[in-house]
Amino acid sequence: MNLRDLRYLLAITEHQHFGRAAEACGISQPTLSVQVRKLEDLLGIALFERTSKAVTPTPACDRLIGHVRAAVAETDAILAVARNLRDPLAGRLRLGIIPTLAPYLLPLIFEPLREALPALKVEPWEDQTATLLARLRAHELDAALLATEVIGSDLAARPLFDEPFLAALPPDHPLAAREVVAEADLAPDILVLADGHCLRDQALTACGRSGPLGDALRATSLSTLLNMVAAGYGTTLVPALAAGAAQDAGIVLRPLAARTVRTVCIAWRTRFPQRAASEAVGDVIARRLSGFAEGAAAGLV
Question: What would the DSSP string read from start to end of the chain?
Answer without folding.
Answer: --HHHHHHHHHHHHH-SHHHHHHHHTS-HHHHHHHHHHHHHHHTS--EEE-SS-EEE-HHHHHHHHHHHHHHHHHHHHHHHHHHHH-TT-EEEEEEE-TTTHHHHHHHHHHHHHHH-TTEEEEEEE--HHHHHHHHHTTS-SEEEESS---STTEEEEEEEEEEEEEEE-TTSGGGG-SSB-GGGGGGGB-EEPTT-HHHHHHHHHHT--S--TT--EESSHHHHHHHHHTTS-BEEEEGGGHHHHHHTT-EEEEBTT--EEEEEEEEETT-TTHHHHHHHHHHHHHHTTTHHHHHHTT--
